[in-house]
Amino acid sequence: MAKDIGNSLQVSVGSSLPTYKAVLFDVVPYATASDILNISIPTTSTIALVISRVYVSYDATAASTADVYIVRRSTANTGGTPTTLTTTQSAFLSGFANITQHDTNDQASQATVVGYTVAPSPLGTPNVIDAGHITIPAVATPTVSVTYFELNYNNRGAKPPVIRPGQSISLSFGGNAVPAGASVYATIEWVEVPLMSLF
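Predicted structure:
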């Protein structure tokens, strides 16, 4: 969008805040998956994570349905088998995962991002931010359309979810059975802002 101000032309290119996303693709979740992705910020941090977008879609061997939960946790997960994600694409649960910076000139994210290949237990104290129920098509002969779970938190007047130091946000499937042949694509996007700038 361009706006003429006097003799200058001002162009809006979105936020200048450092923006990051954790991306999973072609991932086959572990059986009866709970948390599969967790993004946390240390208790000593001077920033917070402001969640801007979440996206999840599936296909599977046969048409099915699945529940999706976005959970803020006020205490840490323990146990399980966490894999720390980085900006280098790496193998994860038969698929791939990585962190992406929207601008490679920005500093590295201060968040810790892990994907789980075995369920953490016990799970940290939860507060469900959002939940959805999606339809999954059969990958070879789809007879239903893909329904995806997408949350855009920055396109309304409401305050987006904020993850403060010591907290985390998780993508969870609620401990439900994973459809046979499932393949998941998922994204959680966030910006990192100084605590003093939060209102």
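Summary: Residues 1-12 have pLDDT under 50 and may be disordered.
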